[in-house]
User: Which sequence fits this backbone?
């Protein structure tokens, strides 16, 4: 089973106060820790699980600067066989990202039964790359996938709909699936894996320049339509105020 | 006259809310462009009633009636939409940023060679460009984006556009387009979530916990708070993904929609997918150590602090108040 995982390095902004750069076109991320996009991490884990079950080869491809090599080495440490980086520092839209990935896969003649990637990235959240890539490579696809069962030349996949409902599909391989969080429990890299990965080569690709279709004009902090009444005065006072509010509303029983 | 084309969605015999939300957005943009609004509905069961509902709010409804369209298959839908886009050349094709839109729109954009902007919370035409507002970094940052081109595809987030009935009498046109069986991508069945415990949609008090709880063992902290309030325990996506709570306890667009009298959001940042499922609760209380967490824009009351310190003291205070009654 030949599997390609498309992964992106993103800043961890879970508990960060984000600041916008002076030109209002990007977010200052220099001081934030960088990590694999959460959804792509699930895609990587699923690829490694499939390889462990059916044997095969897992190739991880990313687009970015040399900063992303740290993420690629972590993917290798977890069990990927090869890491490829398409070198660019440009800000790409979903279209360009998928175009570059498709171009690399075609030009390098990378064979695949499966391409896995996250449903979306935690930074720009466009949810476009998997579907566009499938169309550019002319293979079927499924998005928001929560379960993959391989059966010969096809896969049974569950994809998430709204309200807790899922749908079951059968899709012929090769195919592209975008993976939803929770499909598995991503592993941590072992020390031995990290040591081995540090010596592995990262393949560098340079592709032609392209122009995005969707351009950021300016970034801004979202206007607050409403703001919670923040209960202050320290732990004791704030919790006492909150308890009283709950009581006044008749919600103690 | 230019045209805005809207893809209407239905599931389980019902027209989905997003269909009319898209119609409302299209009508607003159509006024600006002096364009007509056309809705496309693909289906079989109940399709005539869907078409009638839509026709009361648009200029024209295009109906493709075929049993192959009864359940959504992106491949079939894409082939019809591509054909219509190439023939009718709508200035804008609007699709919901739903499980349908996410599956369909990116492929359609490539096949129809049109630019795509996804998950829009605002849309307008300005200086011959389509301009949209999107959210980045889980809603902490907004972006105004401009899309170059003459014609566009956009997906719009559910719940951001309010629908008001228009009392139109739109023309209903049945298109003679047949479906066909797609052998490389087949819909098999729907899978409904298994109810394992309490039905959280029926609870007056919900204590919901998110990523901030860090470990399954820590759930007992919030369980105690839920218990003293006589409420149900629920979770946001990260907690359900880790299987610390059953999937029937998930609140959000991919889980349950709840409207309790009191909703606690503890260690939950407030991503829109979660907010969609709880925003209409009567009283919302958020406890989070990040003062900039979007959940504080939805909550009525908030405590900025470490949940591991706040929740035990709050539970104690509530228990004291209860015993004093």
Assistant:
């Amino acid at each position: 089973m030949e599997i390609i995982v498309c992964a992106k390095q993103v800043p961890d902004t879970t508990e960060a106060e984000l600041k916008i750069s002076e030109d209002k076109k990007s977010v200052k991320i220099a001081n934030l820790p960088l990590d694999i996009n959460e959804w792509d991490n699930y895609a990587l884990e699923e690829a490694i699980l499939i390889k462990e079950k059916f044997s095969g080869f897992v190739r991880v491809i990313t687009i970015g600067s040399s900063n992303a090599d740290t993420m690629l080495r972590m993917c290798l440490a977890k069990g990927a066989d090869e890491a490829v980086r398409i070198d660019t520092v440009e800000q790409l839209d979903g279209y360009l990202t998928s175009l570059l990935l498709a171009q690399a896969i075609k030009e390098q003649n990378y064979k695949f039964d499966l391409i896995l990637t996250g449903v979306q990235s935690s930074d720009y959240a466009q949810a476009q790359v998997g579907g566009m890539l499938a169309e550019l490579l002319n293979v079927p696809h499924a998005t928001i996938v929560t379960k993959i069962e391989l059966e010969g030349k096809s896969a049974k996949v569950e994809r998430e709909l709204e309200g807790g409902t899922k749908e079951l599909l059968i899709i012929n391989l090769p195919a592209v699936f975008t993976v939803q969080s929770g499909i598995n429990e991503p592993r941590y890299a072992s020390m031995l894996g990290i040591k081995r990965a540090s010596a592995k080569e990262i393949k560098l690709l340079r592709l032609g320049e392209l122009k995005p279709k969707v351009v950021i004009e300016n970034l801004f902090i979202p206007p607050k339509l409403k703001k919670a009444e923040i209960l202050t005065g320290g732990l004791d006072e704030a919790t006492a105020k909150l308890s009283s509010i709950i009581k006044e509303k008749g919600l103690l029983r | 006259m230019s045209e805005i084309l809207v893809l209407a969605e239905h599931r389980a015999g019902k027209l989905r809310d997003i269909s009319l939300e898209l119609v409302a957005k299209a009508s607003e943009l159509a006024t600006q462009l002096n364009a007509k609004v056309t809705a496309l509905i693909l289906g079989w069961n109940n399709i005539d009633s869907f078409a009638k509902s839509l026709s009361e709010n648009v200029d024209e409804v295009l109906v493709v009636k075929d049993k192959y369209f009864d359940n959504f298959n992106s491949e079939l839908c894409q082939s019809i939409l591509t054909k219509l886009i190439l023939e009718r050349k709508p200035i804008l094709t609007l699709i919901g940023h739903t499980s349908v839109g996410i599956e369909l729109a990116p492929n359609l954009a490539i096949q129809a060679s049109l630019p795509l902007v996804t998950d829009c919370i605002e849309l307008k035409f300005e200086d011959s460009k389509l301009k949209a507002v999107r959210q980045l970094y889980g809603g902490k940052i907004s972006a105004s984006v401009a899309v170059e081109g003459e014609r566009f595809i956009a997906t719009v987030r559910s719940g951001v556009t309010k629908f008001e009935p228009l009392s139109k009498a739109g023309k209903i046109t049945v298109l003679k387009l047949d479906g066909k069986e797609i052998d490389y991508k087949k819909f098999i069945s729907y899978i409904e979530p298994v109810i394992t415990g309490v039905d959280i949609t029926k609870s007056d008090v919900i204590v919901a916990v998110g990523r901030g709880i860090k470990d399954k063992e820590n759930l007992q902290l919030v369980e105690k708070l839920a218990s003293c309030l006589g409420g149900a325990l629920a979770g946001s996506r990260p907690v359900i993904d880790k299987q610390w709570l059953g999937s029937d306890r998930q609140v959000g667009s991919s889980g349950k929609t709840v409207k309790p009298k009191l909703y606690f959001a503890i260690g939950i940042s407030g991503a829109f997918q979660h907010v969609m499922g709880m925003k209409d609760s009567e009283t919302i209380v958020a406890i989070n150590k990040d003062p900039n967490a979007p959940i504080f824009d939805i909550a009525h009351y908030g405590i900025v602090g470490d949940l591991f310190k706040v929740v035990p003291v709050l539970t104690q205070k509530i228990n004291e108040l209860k015993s004093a009654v």
User: Anything to note?
Assistant: Helices of chain B lie at 17-33, 47-55, 74-88, 99-111, 219-228, 237-241, 272-275, 307-324. The CA atoms of residues 64 and 304 of chain B lie 53 Å apart. The longest strand of chain B covers residues 36-43. The mean pLDDT of chain B is 94.
